[in-house]
Amino acid sequence: MSFSDTPVLQDSRVRLEPLEAHHAAELSEEVGELWRTWYLTLPTPEGIPAEIDARLAQNRSGTMAPWAIVNPVDGRAVGMTAYSGLDEPNRRLEIGYTWLAARMQGTGVNAAAKRLLLQRAFDDLGCIAVELRTHFHNRQSRAAIERLGAKQDGILRSHRILPDGHIRDTVVYSILAGEWPAVRSGLDARLA
Fold first, then answer.
1. For residue 2, is it within any domain?
2. Non-local CB neighbours of 173 within 8 Å, separated by 6+ positions
3. What confidence tens digit (pLDDT) does each residue in 153-173 have?
4. Chain segment 18-75, per-residue pLDDT in tens
5. What is the total count of domains within the chain?
6. What is the distance between the alpha carbons of residues 52 and 58, in angstroms, rounded to a whole number?
7. Is position 164 within any domain?
8. What CATH number does residue 114 fall under?
9. Which domain holds residue 67?
10. Which residues touch 3 (CB under 8 Å, ≥6 apart)?
11. Which SS3 state, helix, strand or coil, does residue 89 take?
12. The pLDDT value given to residue 182
């Protein structure tokens, strides 16, 4: 089992399926106006096919495991997520490159998706640490990561130059293997 494998992961709230080119049409509709948010790095609706191609190229090179986030109620792709920063020798990875359609935010889909990704990382892949990163100004994402039970490791100041030229400070969080049982219990209680 490789960190870059993308098996279907699902529960009653969400299905994560291997990202494929056929998801482009639905994702182009679902990205809506989210791409206009200045602190997010999302493709425009027209840029979704190229983003999918880029993620699939990274998957082929073994550096990313990309999934489509699918609403099991209507079977539509409503976002994307991935494992990145794959470090199998040190049993670490990052959950990131995630976006979710505005209509699905606040529904428990993101928490359910993270629950599935964390379960695979810790229980199936034997990770000792899972990172989550976000833009310093993305307060919604920071709050969601903290609700998961992740702890802030620090802030990488002037970490990345974004396509629009502004410089991003990146907030780094992690969950350690020893913390996973409590994080899992917290997520299970939230999702019950």
1. no
2. 131, 132, 133, 134, 145, 146, 150, 151, 152, 153
3. 999 999 999 888 999 999 999
4. 999 999 999 999 999 999 988 888 999 999 999 999 999 999 999 999 999 999 999 9
5. 1
6. 10
7. yes
8. 3.40.630.30
9. 9-191
10. 65, 83, 86, 88, 93, 125
11. helix
12. 97
